[in-house]
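ingest -> validate -> predict -> emit
validate: passed (alphabet ok, no gaps, 263 aa)
predict: started
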Amino acid sequence: MINLRRYKLLADFEKVSQFLDDNYNLKTLNSYLLRQFFEYAHTHPYFNYKKTHHFGLWEDGDKLVALACYEMEPGECFLSVREGYNHLLAEMIDYAEEELAALTDNQKKLNVWTTDSEKKIRELLSEKGYKKIYTEPVTIFSYEKDFIELDLPAGYSMFSLEEENNIKKIHSCLWKGFNHGPEPDNNYDGRLLMQSGPNFRKDLTTVIKSPDGEYVCYAGMWFDSQNKYAYLEPLATVPEHRRKGLATIALTEAMKKNQKIGR
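emit:
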């Protein structure tokens, strides 16, 4: 018998994370929802943890077989279902419309993220009148390819967060790098929170420093030891330091580190 229940933030985090690892297929890209994506959201200062009880978990006995959740806020939805349980998808979409939608101007709104390979979900959404409004590529770099090698511009240096970890400079870099404005706020606790995830790796996070000592490029990298892939999140460069190859250099360095531990 399959039971539906609500997500319990502290009690269920690891169970859901393991489900996402077990359920993901790198070859078929059967889901947008990865363990790293889920964990990164939970440690993000914008994450609405107060409403995570709206997440839905479907269990077959003790086995978690399906999940409906948002990334940061209600109004968006990610669905993940174990192979052999696609018959739950219609119920999952109905649940998401009831529990995960946002109310805007007295109208419910729900964006559902899917991949091209999730044909059943897409068919059900189409039948319910959903329209595709946005697409983006999922880019995968094979380690069988050669790395792009570039030299740092004169005066710039590169290091991992194990070597140096200045929270104020990280905050400034990411604030400016994601175009939030020229002057960052002082939410340094939020940046510390983002380093608190169980799979956050300081050694895999790569930072580039400008000649004046400011952090100007940041590449966060996560390693999936079960499925043997690396996941990039986040990557940002301060606007006035763009078009110098810094992001490519930082990303390449992070991928080299992952290649070594993934062998």
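DSSP finds seven helices and eleven strands in the chain.
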